[in-house]
Every structure is written in structure tokens, then in C-alpha cells.
Amino acid sequence: MVWEHFQKITINGMPKAKCLHCDHILSAITKNGTSHLKDHINLRCTRKNSKVDIRQKLLSVNRKSDGSARVENDNFSQEVSRRELANMVIMHESPLSIVDHIGFRRFVTSLNAHFKIISRNTLRADIMKMFMSEKSSLKKALESNGSRIAITTDTWTASNQRKGYMAVTCHYIDDFWVLRNKILRFAYVPCPHTKDTLAQVLLDTLNMYNIAEKVSSIVVDNCTTNDAMLDVLSPRFNEQSLMLKGKFLHLRCSAHILNLIVQDGLDVIGDGIKRIRDCVSFWAATPKRVEMFEDKDVFSNIKCQNPRLKFILPTEMDWEFAEKVCEKLKMFHKTTEIFSGRKYPTSNLFFRQVCEIKLALRSWLLSDSQLIRDMTKNMNDKFEKYWSNINGILAIAAILDPRNKLECVEFYFNDIYYDKAGDEIDRVKNLLYDLLYEYQEKEARSMATSNLNNVNGKRPISSINSNDDDGGDKWSKAKKIKTRKVNVRSELDHYLEEDAYPESEGFDILNFWHIELKYPTLQKIAKDILAIPASTVASESAFSMGGRVISPHRSRLHANTVEALMCLQNWIQGEYSGLALENAQACATILEDEDSLDMSSGGGGLSGSEVVDLDSDDDDFMDI
Hints:
Elements: E1 6-11, E2 14-19, E3 25-27, H1 35-44, E4 57-63, E5 69-75, H2 78-92, H3 102-111, H4 120-144, E6 149-158, E7 163-173, E8 179-189, H5 195-208, E9 215-220, H6 224-233, E10 250-252, H7 254-283, H8 287-295, H9 309-339, H10 347-364, H11 370-390, H12 393-399, H13 405-417, H14 421-452, H15 461-467, H16 474-497, H17 509-515, H18 520-529, H19 537-549, H20 559-575, E11 580-581, E12 612-613
Parallel strand pairs: 6-9, 9-10
Antiparallel strand pairs: 1-2, 2-3, 4-5, 6-7, 7-8, 11-12
């Protein structure tokens, strides 16, 4: 019966068995038997269950790199082709009605006349079926993953539908220490968008994937509704399941905070320039005002033959000054770009950048320019409002970066707090120690639970005695607690006593903690902390994609269809992360097109041999 699934072939004079489902080649030497072939079919073949009729074969041409060609048997599956059609529509945001287009139908028929063209309703049904299947797989992956999950969320109103949507994205590090970002929901939110409505949608999402007990933090932008939503949501969590009983559950989007701070500074500059321009316009309006202004001897030291240039000169000087100020503000833009990364951890990069900004604001407050001082005061007031949230959990993330250790926190806090630096450093250290105790106790409870479940379903005698309320005196219990704390403290102290790693552009912090086995408790904490994003850009980027999905031509899509298209596109594109494709438009949408006829002019056309990395942060390549 095995040979119903294999074809006997000869390669280099040796008998081989080629799987008719996945084309895998295995040995077919008679003395080896067929057990390995049976195991392949039953356990390892990835395409056996695609319901392909192995007796229905077509001839295909297998072209080799040396230019030779060979005619071979091929298999056709209507189901596989329908799935690939759905993938194409999802990835490239093609309209569902593409299956009704006569040009598309003729093209498909020319490729394979055996493929039966489906209707748009059948295509939608295939997409919804795929969505439910992939959603179930993602749920199992999140449940089986041992690390905590960070959540980012944001809301958006589709102008073409005038409907509100809420994007919920999860961030976690998998068992192979790869950072994952998955859209969990792109849910329609009925009006009004109150704190209770948003909280319920978010809670339903967490319960839908059964991850409410694994949440590490929820990152939202600086909106009063979001703050109120977290106030409603926080009591609904099991406090014991959260990190430090929910102390870091609510985190604000750092990129959004920095944008608000910069905007406050630019508003002051704009107001200052506007006042000067209004002043110039007033005095230069009439010859009489010009004469009055000259009598004030304001420009007594400026030699200028044209009196009106006396008003133009300070304006030009002020614009030059504004450009210098904008140069200072570039550090905010650079920092925001770093925080907005999605393919690498950002929480460990946050602390140093924000401390640099705080020190820069302090130096600008001492500027000789009143305009700069006014600008900085406005920015600094808002910065201080969020500073206490900034230097807590994210200072711990910086310590868990071996390039920083505690020395980095001590260095910046000494410059920022002066005499009070010691208290702030101790505060951060205590937070880290509290996390260590919490994780170690959680591990101890987990081991105790597993010990209770022996083969016979009975607890071992030692477990009964140690966990019995009547067994053991207070001193024996105190010794156990004391020993556990000493072990944890020595682990952390040993990590902090080692020298910080040198700065390296190619340093991979995830790989460091993946192979670092000396600090098992710190390793678990790092896996959870480094997954926390510093911004909500992953959720916000869904809206740029949603704007294309819910285009004017697709504004009548049902909310369930929109959610399926949005989530599936995110999940499918994740499969291509890290792969180098031969064409920059490989994952582009139907709305992204360009004329590249002139390949030699250097005018931006892409050469046919150009390879593009999907992990690139080039926003011009793929806006997702």
C-alpha cells in the first residue's frame, strides 16, 4: 500500500522513492524495507491531506539550471489552487470581484483548463474559512508559548465607511527567541467609543485567544479615553497573574509622547515667528510708520540704505534661528524612529535615548535665547509629566541589555538627580529584585504543582508534608524563603558585577539571552520585558493598510470580511519575514505600481536582479 503514494525512480544508479504528494526523495533499497516510507506518509508528509487525487496526473516540464528540460508527472488540486487564489487576493489587496473579470478568467484558463473558476461569494467563504483556521492555529501558538505577551492597541475611523475600528496587536518572543508581532483583532467598534466599549472589545479579544493571564503590559497612546479604558480594564485582570500585580500594565506610547513634546516646542517657535512677522508687517505697512520706527533708533547699528530691508533682515535672521532650533529637535525624530521598529526589541533602547533628551532639555533651559528657553520650558513641562512612567520598567529593560547593565542607569541618574541619584537607583534595583522574586516563586509553584501529579495521581509524601498547613514550624518555612532570596540575589549580583559588553552595531540582544544559561531567572524576565514595544506603531500601521482595504471601491465590505482580510494579510506576510525576494514589488499591493521601462537611466527603476530583504525598514518598499 505504501507504493500508492510513491514513485520509483533512479538517481545516480541508486533506487529512490519520490513522494507523489510533496516530491520528497527517500531511499528505496529493498533491504531497507518500507517502514521509513510509511512513517513519511503518516507523520511527516506536509501535503498528504490536501485531498489530491494521486491517480489524476498531468504532464509538466521540469526545467533545470543547465538548460535541459524533462517531462514529468504532475498533480493538480482544485483545493490547493483555490487556497493560493485566496492568498493572492489577501496579500495584494485585490478586489474579491477579480474572479468575475473576464481577463483574469482567460488568464487562469490558459494556465490550467482544469481549474474551475469560483464566484466572489465562494472566494469570500474560502477567505473566512482560512481566517478561522489560521486564527485557531495562532491561538494554540499563543497558549503553548511560555512567555508573556505585550499588547498594543489603537482606534481608527474609516472615512469611506464612517465606521470605527480597533486594532489589537500582540508582541511576544517565541521559543526560538524570535520577536513576533501579530494582529489579533481588527474589530468594528460601534458608537459611541466610550471607555467601557473599548475596554470590553479589548477584554473580549484577550479572552478569545485565552491570553488574559499572560499579558505583561498594554501600550496605548496618550489619549484620555485610553487612560479611562485602562482604568476600567485593570480591575478585571487577575492581579496575581500580572507582573508585580499590574504595576506595569498600563504603558504609554513613547513615540506619541515625544511627538507631543516636539509639537509643543514647535508651537512656541511658530508663535514667536508669527509675532515678529506681525510686527514687521505693522511697521512696514505705511511710510509714516517706517519714519516713526526709524526715530526709535532700534537699528542704529545696522547700515542699510533701503529702510524696508531693516524689517526684512530680522525676519530672515529669525528663520535662520528657527532652522537651528529644528536641528536640535532632530534628536527627537531620530529617537522616535528607533522606538518605532517592529522587527527588533525597542524597550532596551528606550532608556538611554530618553535620558539624552532630558539632559538636552536641561541645557536648553540655560540658553541665551529667550525663545529657546520658552520653547524648552513648554517641552520640559510635558516631559516631566511622563518621566516617572518612563524610567521604571524601561530602566529595567536597559539593565537587561548587557551593553548597559546597572552602570548605565547610575551614569544617567547621577547627571539627572545629583544628590538624589542613589534613591532613584535603589528604586529601579528594587523593582528588578521584586521581579526576580516573583518569577522565582512562580517557578517554584509550577514545580510543586508538577510534583503533585505523579504517575498514580497521588502526591508524594514529601510534598504532602511540605505543603500541609500543619506540617513544619515557622523557622523551617523562613529558611526556605531565605534560601530562595539569596540564590536569586546572587544570580542578579553576578550578572551586574560582570563588565558591560562593548558597543557593537551588529549586537543581537535576543541571541545573547537565548544562549545565556548562567542566569535562568533573568533569562525568563528578559524574554518578557524585551517583547514590550516602546510604541504603538504596530497597531497604527494596521490603519494605513486598513485605509487601502476599506477603499472607496470596497467601502461596502462587511466588518467581518474586513477583519479577516486585515488579520490574514498580517499573518501571511509574517511568513515571508526574513526572506530575500527577487523583486521589490513581490509583496506590493495593487495600488503600488511604477513604470520601470528605462532600466539603465538610473532614474529609480529596479533592476531585474535586485534582491530586497523583507526585514528592511524601508517604508517606500512596503507600508504595512
